[in-house]
Write a structure and sequence with these properties.
This protein is α/β, with parallel strands linked by helices and 480 residues long. The chain has 4 domains: 208 residues, 3-Layer(aba) Sandwich (Rossmann fold), CATH 3.40.50.11720; 111 residues, Glycogen Phosphorylase B (Rossmann fold); 78 residues, Alpha-Beta Complex (Polyamine Oxidase, Chain A, domain 2); 37 residues, no CATH class. The protein is 34% helix and 16% strand. It has 15 helices and 19 strands. The strands form 5 sheets. It has a 7-stranded parallel sheet with strand order 5-4-3-6-7-8-9, with helices on both faces. A 5-stranded parallel sheet has the order 13-12-11-15-16, sandwiched between helices. The chain has a 3-stranded antiparallel sheet with strand order 17-18-19, covered by helices on one side. Strand 7, helix 6 and strand 8 form a beta-alpha-beta unit. Helix 7 packs across helix 8. The protein is globular, with a radius of gyration of 27 Å. The N terminus is likely disordered.
Length: 480
């Protein structure tokens, strides 16, 4: 056998690349096949379902113009269907979170080295990294260290499509990217400006969701089912899908005829989703499944994980809510790594709301002494903290000492509060902020009907026109 006809890892006794790399939740290594028809013109690396789908459009466009263009990929089935040789299904092993990565560290380390060896052995003319920065940027760095990339004196051109969100976090990455990459394509026009202090060629190439001729994945229809989008990573789906099901079940209690559609990216995820749904027998017959990639899926509302599909839903004008739940240990480490000096609050605003994704005990905190004079003695501040609500109603009935022990650690962390309070007052409101749940419109219709039947009677309050103080005042002053 000629050395160029075999994979550099084919003698390791790994499983066939035609099999799924996950078995019973355990990640499995696989051998990479040799490239067909000699040295590849392009190697694409896309580690997530969204990247696989976007890159597939790219490959289809290239091969329509150049049918003989040789493309290999570490991606998924969409790239394979577009004509790329699938060396390994990276989308099947996509995970997120420190704990998840740590559990499979040896697997990912071996996979990473295997990719490097394959690239060094077969030397594709160009590599296009698609999103997936945790893996791809490290790979670009190692290719530079091995002298394989152009900017290190090698032959391989490195391109990046759908760049990392440096405008949201780790902005300094752009300087190393400029040292390693030959070009970058971004999908939001404002992203170009974030690289102006580098010599990296950056081009706005348009967002895949608004390419001309591309069908819209979702459409709004008030009479359609609720859309459930639990994500594409197995670990995240396992945490988020139960949350979406509980929320849908609560809505279904108020609107018995409500149905839901779950969109899934792969057969592997579908199997997982169905297993989770079996633990909710009450709503099993109310939920159906649709494979991702369909166009024109109609929905009246959406419950979704945070991700690529969030933008697609927003562009379709479908109202909804985003849910996300990290591994608790992953979340704790993320907080610990944040510098205290960067989050200490000067108390120069109205207050702060705490999103549910932060998994805290408190709902929010107000700064009354910053807003109004005389609310606290000199050199002291007054903080009003809210606990309980719809998220954790059981906490609202706890005694003062228990609540103090829950609230103080979070105020210390969020606001830099030190020491013990000089004054504590605890009050329990059994009926506080109204919840405008699905189906609440029927209550509002009854209120309107009562007023029409009784001329001169006007009903106003935060249960009708909005929960804010401004809403209540406007409602009271309204002549309608």
């Amino acid at each position: 056998m000629n050395a160029d006809d075999r994979s550099p890892t084919s003698d390791q006794g790994l499983s066939s690349p035609d099999h799924c790399p996950i078995s019973d939740g355990i990640l499995k290594a696989q051998a990479f096949a040799a490239p067909v028809n000699g040295r590849p013109d392009l190697l694409i690396i896309a580690g997530e379902h969204s990247g696989d789908e976007h890159a597939a459009h790219l490959v289809a466009g290239i091969r329509a113009q150049r049918p003989d263009y040789k493309v290999a990929c570490l991606g998924g089935v969409k790239l394979q269907a577009a004509g790329a040789q699938l060396l390994y299904d990276l989308t099947a092993v996509s995970i997120v979170g420190f704990v998840e990565v740590l559990k499979h560290y040896n697997f990912f380390k071996g996979l990473f080295e295997q990719v490097l060896d394959w690239i060094e052995h077969y030397k594709p003319k160009e590599i296009c990294f698609v999103d997936y920065p945790g893996f791809n940027l490290r790979l670009a760095d190692r290719l530079h260290q091995r002298g394989l990339s152009r900017k290190a004196g090698g032959e391989i051109r490195l391109s990046y499509y759908i760049g990392p969100q440096i405008w949201a976090w780790k902005a300094k990455r752009r300087f190393k990217m400029a040292e390693r990459l030959d070009r970058l394509g971004v999908i939001f026009p404002f992203e170009v400006d974030y690289y102006k202090d580098t010599d990296l060629p950056v081009e706005f190439v348009g967002h895949p969701f608004i390419q001309s001729g591309e069908p819209t994945p979702f459409i709004y229809d008030a009479a359609a089912p609720v859309l459930l989008l639990p994500g594409s990573r197995m670990a995240a789906v396992g945490r988020i899908f139960p949350v979406l099901l509980k929320s849908f079940s609560a809505a279904q209690d108020e609107v018995p005829g409500l149905r839901a559609i779950v969109v899934y990216p792969s057969d592997q995820i579908l199997k997982q989703l169905k297993a989770i749904l079996e633990t909710y027998p009450k709503i099993m017959d109310k939920i159906s499944f649709e494979r991702n990639g369909q166009s024109g899926i109609a929905a009246c509302a959406v419950l979704m994980s945070s991700g690529t599909m969030s933008l697609a839903v927003a562009m379709s004008g479908i109202p909804g809510a985003i849910a996300y739940r990290l591994n608790p240990i992953s979340y704790w480490i993320g907080r610990y790594l944040v510098k205290r000096s960067e989050v200490t609050h000067p108390l120069d605003g109205f207050g702060a709301l705490v999103p549910e994704c932060e998994q805290r005990k408190i709902l929010g905190v107000l700064f009354p002494s910053s807003l109004f004079p005389g609310r606290a003695p000199k050199d002291e501040v007054l903080l009003t903290t809210f606990v309980g609500g719809e998220r954790q109603p059981e906490l609202a009935t706890e005694d003062t000492q228990t609540l103090k022990s829950l609230v103080l650690p979070e105020l210390r962390e969020l606001l830099g509060v030190r020491g013990d309070p000089t004054f504590v007052h605890h009050r329990h409101w059994s009926h506080a902020i109204p919840q405008y749940k699905l189906g609440y419109s029927r209550i509002l219709e009854k209120i309107n009907h009562i007023e029409l039947e009784r001329p001169g009677l006007q009903l106003a309050g935060n249960y009708r026109t909005g929960i804010s103080l401004t809403d209540c005042i406007e409602s009271a002053l309204s002549e309608e």
